[in-house]
Amino acid sequence: QVQxxxxxxxxxxxxxSVKVSCKASGYTFTSYDINWVRQATGQGLEWMGWMNPNxxxxxxxxxxxxxxxxxRNTSISTAYMELSSLRSEDTAVYYCARKKGSGWYAPFDxxxxxxxxxxxx
Amino acid sequence: xxxxxxxxxxxxxxxGERATLxxxxxxxxxSNLAWYQQKPGQAPRLLIYGASTxxxxxxxxxxxxxxxxxxxLTISSLQSEDFAVYYCQQYNNWPLYSFGQGTKLEIx
Lengths: 121, 108
Prior knowledge:
The complex is a heterodimer. By secondary structure, chain A is mostly beta strands. Chain A is built from no helices and 11 strands. Chain A has strands at 3-6, 10-12, 18-25, 34-39, 46-51, 58-60, 68-73, 78-83, 92-99, 108-111, 115-119.
């Protein structure tokens, strides 16, 4: 079945960077965009950006431009999201989510299990 | 940026009753609207896409309607497992996606 499995929880100090991985299985990795969404404790969902695993093209929400980088390794069907200059407000669960279809307009399905990133001195 | 606004923030309904959740877009998103269910400690799960199409395995008691800027998610007869937080998402403004702030459906 289609599945996204993310790396484990991270604890980082302010100013550091974190890199979260998302390993895909059950489908052709390069055929569907991967998106990243984060959720602070008790808060809603916040879209961060997307990546086309085939071309490597990316697009980021304005809020994260300059601090986020999305990459992939097609040989191991894995997407990565790196967030730099971490601050306490970045403490959240980070999700990867596959675009449901290969066309322009599609929701996200499935989602990874989430990775908790805690930023604390 | 398209802003999605959900109402109410919290909805209290008794099991077996109907629940109606609303989502409004700041500009037309056509029918490119999805609903997700999220339970504590879990990732969101796709319920409805294309405003009214149920995702695979979603029970028929979940239904979606609307187009343009006004959308509704209806749960016809609430089961205990339906109490959760529900989010709407527009994907019309690809690739700039946005979510509503969520509606918490709680047991009355």
